[in-house]
Write a structure and sequence with these properties.
CATH architecture: Up-down Bundle
Order of helices and strands: HHHHH
CATH class: Mainly Alpha
Helix content: over 70%
Number of helices: 5
Number of strands: 0
CATH superfamily: Membrane associated eicosanoid/glutathione metabolism-like domain
CATH topology: Four Helix Bundle (Hemerythrin (Met), subunit A)
Number of domains: 1
């Protein structure tokens, strides 16, 4: 199960990766009010990287809950690890596609990631039920 736990750690760090990309994309980053700086930016790369940052936070909770619930319910470790690895891969792709301005691919990566998180939760519910 440790692979899935490492994936939770990677997923927890991913939002900060996209924040670094947003801040590095344009000189003049203002650390006094970073949210206003990103919101007022006219640079589409900054806006997309910031959106990837926010979306990565949104995706983390159901994934982390899914890993914990699946582990507690006794779902097969290989299944949990496989879904966790797939989730991380989809979320990395999601961020890359967001920054690269590839909306259809971004949406597919988002769908893959949320499907993995939901599968973990459903498998836990079925196993516990």
């Amino acid at each position: 199960m440790s692979i899935a736990y490492w994936c939770v750690l990677v997923a927890a760090v991913l939002p900060y990766l996209w924040a670094v990309v947003a801040k590095a994309a344009r000189p003049g980053y203002n650390n006094r009010n970073p949210r206003a700086w990103a919101a007022k930016s006219n640079d589409y790369l900054v806006q997309r990287a910031h959106a990837a940052h926010l979306n990565a936070f949104e995706a983390f909770a159901p994934f982390a809950a899914g890993v914990v619930l699946a582990q507690l319910a006794g779902v097969d470790a290989q299944t949990v690890n496989g879904l966790a690895l797939a989730f991380v891969a989809f979320r990395v792709l999601h961020g890359l596609f967001y920054v690269a301005d590839k909306p259809p691919l971004r949406s597919l990566a988002w769908l893959g990631g949320i499907a993995c998180a939901l599968a973990l939760i459903v498998l836990a519910a079925l196993r516990a039920g």
